[in-house]
Design goal:
Bound molecules: iron/sulfur cluster
CATH class: Alpha Beta
CATH architecture: 2-Layer Sandwich
Enzyme class: translocase
Catalytic activity: a quinone + NADH + 5 H(+)(in) = a quinol + NAD(+) + 4 H(+)(out)
Oligomer: single chain
EC number: 7.1.1.-
Distance between the termini: 63 Å
InterPro entries: 4Fe4S_Fe-S-bd (IPR017896), 4Fe4S_Fe_S_CS (IPR017900), NADH_quinone_OxRdtase_chainI (IPR010226)
GO cellular component, one term: plasma membrane
Shape: elongated
Order of helices and strands: HHEHEEHEEHHH
CATH topology: Alpha-Beta Plaits
Number of strands: 5
Radius of gyration: 26 Å
Strand content: 5-15%
Number of helices: 7
Largest sheet: 3 strands, antiparallel
Length: about 230
């Protein structure tokens, strides 16, 4: 075949070949998602909104170490740790996360922060509806990220389970709040000494006061889905 004939064939085939993808797609099944009416189920380990988890008695797992913030490549996490006291205890150990923020205008949902967390305090849920209309609303605070309360939990701050230490929490020996556990007043937040008509819990070592149970108001304040420990 001459060179001129080759060029003539290519000149005819190229436009037809260009429509090949179009013709193939015309006969394929449609993949239209009916969102938001029929949201698609995500994969089990999908990286969605973060969650700050609790121990089984309601104390917080976060120890305010900032490792998650240092691991974040997008500088999306801000943490301020503080010391627990016997009168106001948020986690079993020495420190807790007093301020915790994640900026979802920056976060790329890579999951490096949850890998860095030494206590499994930080995990990710399957929730992906994170869009909002202002940058300020995309900064999620600790109140929004903290997991809700499940049965057997009392909202923090409250005393450590009597007869246990921090290590026992990580060994799984504490499975629920001790009878008589009540929520302490959050002095650092300026809360009054009596919360929801319940007495302030005694300091560690002192006899436990009656009237256990988590306050409904405290439960309602947590935006995360109760009992859901996010995917890691
Ligand atoms: S998922 Fe990635 S980008 Fe988002 S806060 Fe964690 S480390 Fe930072
Ligand atoms: S979430 Fe984990 S890594 Fe981040 S400050 Fe708390 S304990 Fe440390």
């Amino acid at each position: 075949m001459t060179e001129g004939a080759n060029q003539s064939d290519q000149g005819f085939q190229n436009p037809v070949a260009g429509f090949g993808v179009t013709f193939k797609a015309m006969f394929k099944k449609r993949l239209t998602e009916q969102y938001p009416e029929q949201p698609k189920t995500t994969a089990p380990r999908f990286h969605g909104r973060h969650q700050l988890n609790r121990h089984p008695d309601g104390l917080e797992k976060c120890v305010g170490c900032e490792l998650c913030a240092w691991a974040c490549p997008a500088d999306a996490i801000y943490v301020e740790g503080a010391d627990n006291t016997d009168e106001e205890r948020y986690s079993p150990g020495e420190r807790y996360g007093r301020v915790y923020q994640i900026n979802y205008a920056r976060c790329i949902l890579c999951g490096l922060c949850i890998e860095a967390c030494p206590t499994r305090a930080l995990t990710m849920t399957n929730e992906f509806e994170l869009a909002d209309s202002t940058r300020k609303d995309l900064i999620y605070t600790k109140d929004q990220l903290l997991a809700g309360l499940t049965e057997g939990m009392v909202d923090s701050p409250h005393a450590i389970h009597p007869g246990t230490d921090e290590q026992d929490y990580y060994r799984g020996l504490v499975t629920e709040a001790a009878p008589g556990t009540v929520r302490q007043a959050a002095v650092s937040k300026g809360e009054p000494a009596v919360v929801d008509s319940e007495p302030v819990a005694p300091a560690e070592g002192a006899p436990a006061a009656p009237a256990p149970a988590a306050s409904p108001a405290a439960s309602a304040g947590s935006a995360a889905k109760p009992g859901q420990e996010g995917q890691g």
